[in-house]
Every structure is written in structure tokens, then in C-alpha cells.
Write a structure and sequence with these properties.
Number of domains: 2
Number of strands: 12
CATH topology of the largest domain: Aspartate Aminotransferase, domain 2
Structural class: alpha/beta
Strand content: 5-15%
CATH architecture of the largest domain: 3-Layer(aba) Sandwich
Strand order of the largest sheet: 2-8-7-6-5-3-4
Shape: globular
Low-confidence stretches: 397-405
Distance between the termini: 60 Å
Mean pLDDT: 92
Radius of gyration: 22 Å
Number of helices: 13
């Protein structure tokens, strides 16, 4: 009775909790922490969405159980969004399902399609649920290095050839959390061809598809001919409409996969509160200038962060998409790893970031900044980091002498 439960044993200690504990301790001591850690949008939800929530909540009938697949109006609105945005026509009854955020949908689909011992190809670094959703379902994860989309494509075929049994699914996620990388449609064409060759499913996460800054809008894998034969795509309204706590996401694509997810969900939930689903429908069908406004706020914050860090002597790539910046550790601190660096940055500069090791072993040379502080606070963080880098850089290791004593 004292042994830990099997599924809990398969989950490692939550890396981010160490930084969160230090943040809480510092704040309890009255310290001002500039927090770029969690990707928790801080902007208000647009007024017309809130108004629709309030209007619907006043209807006594709205308090009853909802539908786990999502109300018909929301599923039609999601299909309409895909038609407008990607030119993809979906059947709202068979190829669309609403979820309690994209994370819940992803984890429950993993439960639906995975048998113990199944091999799943997952990019690394990646959003933790992409691996741990399948680990909780009993799968074996084959981590595929994803330092770039090109590297990922090179390595997945090798991973498939050397996996026993052969992989049953592959996960892709662009724009990427945490790396902020984006891809063109040709990338998805190669992924679809690869999956067809090996007879596997594709799970695509596009939660940040509307947060892009410098180029054309990111594509969907469902734009590839034949993709719906083997792919499902997950998305969310959390970042697009500043609705994170509302927990509204979706899965669209292959009817068999959507049906499997619906079967699992029918045993677990009754769907989101109906007024939330109605308000989400209003978000998708209503004016979209709010999406551009939210995108522009993140772009401004990105520019200020990159500039402030450069002034501090820490040059990082400017992210083309998402609400994150993926920052290589400063040269002088690379030997200590991302967790130790994140703790030191919090202690000495009062700035919180997410250690890259929390997204997988190949993320350990980076930290992630979430663009959730305003421009003034971001500049303040830059000044604190400049002082930190100037005063806390470890002394360079001495080279061994070539002269014998």
C-alpha cells in the first residue's frame, strides 16, 4: 500500500514547480517578480464575447447539462472558421468536436487510440502534454529531436525504422510551443507522405495558428490532399481571443479519430457550460478585429523583449509566431543548464522564466519567455537582467596546464 501508483511513477517531478515554489517564496517576502514563466494571457476577453456569455447565462435553460461533442452551433462555427481560414471544408457532425481546451482533447484522444506498449513519435522539445498524454495512456515515447523542422523531418523516418513495434502515431506542433518555429505547407506534405508510408496517425497541434507576426498565416495539415485520411488537428480559443480560463478548444479532421475522442468524452464530461460554448460561437462568427489587436500586442511585446535583452547583452532570435521567445542560455551560463540558470535569474534579478529542460532533454540549453508582461515591465526586466549578467557570470574555467611540475 505504500508504493506509488504505476501511472504516477511514469510522470517525472514537474520541473516548473521548482521555479514556481521560488516565485511564491519571493512574493511572500514582498519581492516584485517580473514573471515571464507561464503562458497565461493577461489581456481582457473582447467585450462582445463576454456580453454573449452574460446574455446566455440569464436563460434558465442554459444551466442544464450541455453536449460533450459541443453544441451544434459551435461545431458549425468551427467548420466555418476552417473554411474561411484554410479553405478546408469539414462536416460539423463527423469531423468536428469541441473540447475543454486543446490539452484535454489531446490527452483523451491518446487514451482512445493507445494500447500499452504502442510507440509514439513526439518532437523534443515540445509542450509536455504531447508526450505525457500518451505516457499516461501506457505508450512508449520515441523522442525526435526538433531543433528545427528540417531536423525533425530527417529524424522521424530514422526513428520509425528503428522502433519495435512500428510507431502508431506521430505528433507535430507548429507554430511551436516552446520554440516558436513555424512551417510551410510543404512540411505537412512530407509528414502526410511519411505517415501514409508507415501506416500511422498524425496528431497536429495548431493552438498558436493566429499568433503570427512577420510572414503569412501558418497553414493547417488538413490543407494537404488526403490528410483527413490519417490526421486530426487540435486548436484553442485561449490565445486567439484571450479566453484561457474559459477552456474552449477543438479537434477537427479524420472522422474515425474524432469519433474515438467523442466516445471517450461521452463517458467523462458533458461539455463546457453552454453559455461558454455560445460565447465561443460568437467569437468565431463575430468581428475578427480583436484577433488582430491581440496579435499586435504580442508583437509589440516581442519586439520590446528582444530589444531589451539585446541591450542587456543577451541576443536571442526574434520569434516569428506564438506568445513565446525561445532564448539560448547566455554563453557564460550554458554549463549550468536551464533549471539552475532559471533559479539564479529569479533569485538575483527577480525575473521568472521557464527552464527549457521542462520541455524535454533537448530543450536544456534554452529558457522560454512568455510574452505576458507589458512593455514597461519588460524594459524593467531587461535592466535587471543586464545587471545580473554583468555581476553573476561564472568565472571561466581554467585550462589545464601543459607544463608538468
Amino acid at each position: 500500500m505504500d508504493s506509488e501508483f504505476h501511472k504516477i511513477r511514469r510522470l517525472p517531478p514537474y520541473v516548473f514547480e521548482e521555479v514556481n515554489r521560488l516565485k511564491a517564496k519571493a512574493r511572500a517576502a514582498g519581492e516584485d517578480i517580473i514573471d515571464f514563466g507561464m503562458g497565461n494571457p493577461d489581456m481582457p476577453t473582447p467585450k462582445h464575447i463576454i456580453d454573449k456569455l452574460i446574455e446566455t447565462a440569464r436563460d434558465p435553460r442554459a444551466n442544464r447539462y450541455s453536449a460533450s461533442r459541443g453544441i451544434a452551433g459551435l461545431r458549425k462555427a468551427l467548420a466555418g472558421y476552417y473554411a474561411r481560414r484554410f479553405g478546408v471544408k469539414l462536416d460539423p457532425d463527423k469531423e468536428v468536436i469541441s473540447t475543454l481546451g486543446s490539452k484535454e482533447g489531446f490527452a483523451n484522444l491518446a487514451q482512445a487510440i493507445t494500447a500499452p506498449g504502442d510507440v509514439i513519435l513526439v518532437p523534443n522539445p515540445a509542450y509536455p502534454i504531447h508526450a505525457y498524454g500518451f505516457i499516461m495512456a501506457g505508450a512508449v515515447i520515441r523522442h525526435v529531436p526538433s531543433g528545427s523542422p528540417e531536423e525533425f523531418l530527417r529524424r522521424i523516418d530514422q526513428s520509425a525504422r528503428h522502433s519495435v513495434p512500428a510507431p502508431s502515431a506521430v505528433v507535430v506542433s507548429y507554430p511551436s510551443n516552446p520554440t516558436a518555429q513555424t512551417v510551410e505547407l510543404d512540411f505537412y506534405k512530407e509528414v502526410v507522405a511519411f505517415a501514409r508510408k508507415w501506416g500511422m496517425w498524425v496528431l497536429s497541434d495548431v493552438a498558436y495558428s493566429e499568433l503570427y507576426f512577420d510572414g503569412k498565416p501558418p497553414p493547417s495539415i488538413l490543407q494537404v490532399e488526403g490528410a483527413r485520411e490519417l490526421a486530426i488537428e487540435f486548436g484553442s480559443l485561449s490565445k486567439t481571443y484571450a479566453m484561457p480560463g474559459w477552456r474552449v478548444g477543438y479537434a477537427v479532421g479524420n472522422a474515425r479519430l474524432v469519433g474515438a475522442l467523442a466516445r471517450i468524452k461521452s463517458y467523462l464530461d458533458y461539455g463546457a457550460f453552454t453559455p461558454i460554448q455560445v460565447a465561443a460561437t460568437a467569437a468565431l462568427n463575430g468581428p475578427q478585429d480583436c484577433v488582430a489587436d491581440i496579435r499586435n500586442i504580442y508583437k509589440s511585446r516581442r519586439d520590446v523583449l528582444v530589444d531589451s535583452l539585446a541591450r542587456a547583452g543577451w541576443n536571442i532570435p526574434s520569434p516569428p509566431a506564438t506568445m513565446f521567445a525561445w532564448a539560448p542560455l547566455p554563453e557564460a551560463f550554458r554549463e549550468m543548464g536551464s533549471l539552475a540558470f532559471s533559479k539564479l535569474l529569479l533569485e538575483k534579478a527577480g525575473v521568472a522564466v521557464s527552464p527549457g529542460i521542462g520541455f524535454g532533454e533537448y530543450g536544456d540549453g534554452h529558457v522560454r519567455f512568455a510574452l505576458v508582461e507589458n512593455e514597461q515591465r519588460t524594459r524593467q526586466a531587461g535592466r535587471a537582467i543586464k545587471k545580473f549578467l554583468a555581476s553573476e557570470a561564472p568565472a571561466p574555467a581554467q585550462k589545464p596546464s601543459l607544463v608538468r611540475a
